[in-house]
Amino acid sequence: MSISTTQAGENASFVATLYFSDAQEIFTANRIVILSSVSVNAVDCWTIKAVMDSKDPKTNTPKSQTILIHIRQDQVSGNVTLGAARTFPDIAENTAGYYVLTDSPDDDDDDLDAVFGFPSVRGNLVYQRPEDNAHIVGHFNFDLETEEKTSFSIKGTFNVAPSLFKTA
Q: Which of 30, 48, 118, 159 has its CA 20 to 30 A from that of 124?
C-alpha cells in the first residue's frame, strides 16, 4: 500500500524537473513511499518511490510516472554518487530510475499495461536524516539514457517523513 503525501503530513514532498533536449517537464509526486529492499549484491537498501499519476494528454488514458531512488540503509546521510542502475525489477544500491506506465488506448480498461524504463547512468544525491528522525531531506540529479541512446536528466528535492517507511 502506498501512502499519499497528504496522509504523510503537509511537509512531505517530492518534486523534480525532467530536462529533455527540447523541453522540460515538472514532476510533483502525489504518492510517496519508502520501501525496504535488497540489491542484487545482497545490500539492504531504502527505495524512495515517488509517483505522479495523471492522464496522457494525447490519449486521455491513465499515466503513472515513477522515480525510484535506491540508497544503502547503512548510510544515514551524506553525499552519494549514483551509478548505473539495473533493469527493473533488479536494483543496485545507490542508483535511480525513471519509469512511465501507460494504459493502451486500444483496450477498454484503465489498466496500466505499457512500461517504459529509464535507469540512471550517473548522478548525485545529497541527503540528511536529522537526529530527531522527523524527516529525511535531500536533493538529487541524475542522467538517464533512452533505448535510442539519447539522454535526459532529472533534478529534484524531497522531504519525507518516517511514517512513509514500509518494511513489507
A: 30
pTM of the model: 0.85
Domain residue ranges in the chain: 3-166
**Maximum CA extent, the chain:** 51
Low-confidence stretches of the chain (pLDDT beneath 70): 1-11, 104-114, 130-134, 162-168
DSSP 117-143: EEEEEEEEEEEE--TT-S-EEEEEEEE
Cell numbers 540528511: residue: 128
- CA 125, 129, 130, 135 torsion-angle sign: positive
